[in-house]
Fold Nicotinamidase-related amidase.
Amino acid sequence: MKALLVIDVQKGIVDTRDFNLELSVMKQIIQDFKASQLPIICLKHIDNSEGSLLHNDSEGSELHEAIKNCADLVIEKQTPSAFFNTDLSIHLQRLDIDHLFLIGFETEFCCMFTAISAYDRGYSVTFLQEAIGTTNTDDSYQMPGIDIDRFVSNILLWSNVIEVIDHRQYLEKYKAAL
């Protein structure tokens, strides 16, 4: 069975810049999973560092209103991987999940680490390109001109173990099959 992981779509991340395009695609995919009555699991990154946008007690750690009411389950995490020191695996086993679709934020950390961790645990993984984003820029990494989302998507695609598709491909291959 399939499940959707919605990674770190939190106020503290979404409010940093214009993510309207990514949120629009995310909401469409979420609606598809809801209509098919497939599980939607939201992951929240919690950072206990003082002043963090995702500090446990801050408004920034809350799920963004665009996806707030979609979750069948919300799991908090403190590392880039949604599997490390969480009960995500237990929930996925209980639901008999074998295929994970990933959308969300912090492409080069939480999305990528979760995709790799899911693959390592035997799940089929589909990474949805237009439904990911990052707060970081080419300046963050001192790599002028790099498109972080595209770069990470290409790395995962080239691995030949994680399916990376755009929204059009998702619609053609999966929407009717959900």
